[in-house]
Each structure stands twice: as structure tokens, then as C-alpha cells.
Amino acid sequence: MSCPHVTGAAAIVKAAYPRWSTTAIKSALMTTAYVVDPKKHENEREFACGSGLLNPTKAVDPGLVFDASEKDYVDFLCKQSYNTTTARKITRDKSVCRGIKPARAWDLNYPSFSLAVEDGHEIKGNFHRTVTNVGKPNSTYNVSIVMPDSIKVNVEPSVLSFTDIGEKKSFCVDVNGQHITQVPIISGSITWKNGKHVVKSPLVIYNVLPSVFLTNPLYRTQRLSTHQTHISPGERSSFQPH
């Protein structure tokens, strides 16, 4: 039953902003959602409740959006070992993967952050994101981080100042922590606030057993020297984010 409700909410945002991309609309719905306590879904947490409960009223005034073009998504496929033939089976057009080097899937400009860490290894990762100001011309946003004390999260810069609507600003998120063992999911969030708007993104760290890294080709091909990888929307994993 969620599909018609989300479709209706998306239609409301689309009516308010006819020129927005589907990605911007999705971002507005996700970052303004009512917060749902992930602990109520103990086994899956954010992988069960997503960003929360939709709030269409706030979604038409999100302040900031995480936008991405159609080309960004095609490049995302190409960077994940798709070639022109396999990518076209999804895009149904003349997209070409030629000349695009493999890259990190988790840097897709998506309004959430998820970090998979192999069991027994250190928590370490970084994300790059770009937000677009769709609120007031002169706005300053400060970051707020929620995460257990054992996990260190640094956002740089911690303040984003905009002077115009449509202006873009980028930031980097660094995540570090001790070895993680038999801890299924660690929940947190990164929120940008300017006194009026609250732009919240879930940040999830989850434990993956070594056997999954060895048998899942997506983990195996992206495995880093620190024995970790990241999952973004579109990839297969043992969890299916909503």
C-alpha cells in the first residue's frame, strides 16, 4: 500500500515544482519525513523503516535537495562494471559506458549514507555529497550529527552558506570507529538546519560476515585494502533498503 501514498506525495511536490527532477522530488520526500525510531524494527532498523513517514506538507519546502541527473545514474551503472550492452538493457536508450572508469558506488548523490563493514574490521569510510538550495536566497545551514560515541563522524564543511536559489554546495562525511564484530546495524543521522528547514539523512553502519564479502561479486570487486565496501541504491546486498 505504500506505492499509491508515495505517488500521491510525489505528485504534490511535482505540482509545486514542475521542473524538478525525480531525484530532487525523492530527496524532498526523504529528508523531510517524520522520524521513525529505527529501534522499533530491531532486526532491520533503517532497512525496514527507510527515512521515516512521509510529510507532504514539509516536502514542498525542503530547503535543500540532493539532486542527480539521468546521466549521473547511467554513469553509476557504468562505474559498477556494467558495459554499454548491459546498461542499455536498463536505460532502453543509446547510453554508452565507454571511457568511464570504475568508481565508488557510495558517492552517488543520494540523501542517505550506508557503510558496510566486514566483521572484525575497523569502521572507516567517507562520502561526498552536493546539495542544492531550493529555499531562501540567503541561507546558512549548520550540521548536526547523531551517532553513538564510539563512532566518530566528521562533516566538512560543517556550515553551508548560500546566497542564491539553485546554488550548490558540496560536503564530505568521514566515518571512523573501532573494530566491529557481531553488531548488525548501527543507526545515526546527519542533519542540516537553518532555523526553519531541517534536512535529515540517515547514516547506517552495518556488519557483513566475511563469507558475504567472498561470495557476493559486488563486494568482492569493490573490496578495499581495509576490507570494507559500501552499498548504494541499485546494488544488491543481503539487505534491501526501502
Automatic annotation (TrEMBL):
This is PREDICTED: cucumisin. It comes from the Eukaryota. Residues 107-205 form the Subtilisin-like protease fibronectin type-III domain. The keyword Signal applies. It holds the Pfam family fn3_6. The keyword Repeat does not apply. Residues 1-52 form the Peptidase S8/S53 domain.
